[in-house]
Design goal:
Blueprint lengths: L4 H17 L3 H11 L4 E2 H8 L3 H13 L3 E6 L2 E6 L1 H18 L8
Antiparallel strand pairs: 1-3, 2-3
């Protein structure tokens, strides 16, 4: 069964949203920090990056909306964790066009 044009377009929009979320250096640093632990509070990210709390909150919101980070309310704090499946999906979606048009170079031993 082939994928419909509407489905391909929706997939492309989802990928574009995730890539847009990854287009800021602070958000990449946030993802790196979150990847190193099971989950973190916004305060822990602020302490690690030396950015204003409001700035980190806005970046986390963008990452959550893009589906790259999961949010969970934990009493007075919010907990954030990388969605590893979504992040791996971004990698796979970028690899697909490269793999289909550019064969891997042969190793020279």
């Amino acid at each position: 069964m082939t994928e419909s044009p509407e489905s391909r377009c929706a997939d492309s929009r989802a990928i574009a949203l995730r890539l847009a979320a990854l287009s800021h250096p602070a958000r990449i640093e946030i993802l790196k920090h979150l990847s190193a632990s099971a989950c973190c509070s916004c305060r822990e990210v602020v302490d690690h990056l030396d950015l204003a709390q409001s700035t980190v909150s806005q970046h986390l919101k963008i990452l959550v909306e893009a589906g790259l980070v999961r949010f969970e309310a934990d009493r007075q704090r919010s907990r954030y964790a990388v969605d590893h499946i979504a992040l791996a999906g971004v990698s796979a979606s970028l690899n697909q066009p490269v793999a289909s048009c550019c064969p891997a170079p042969k190793r020279q031993d």
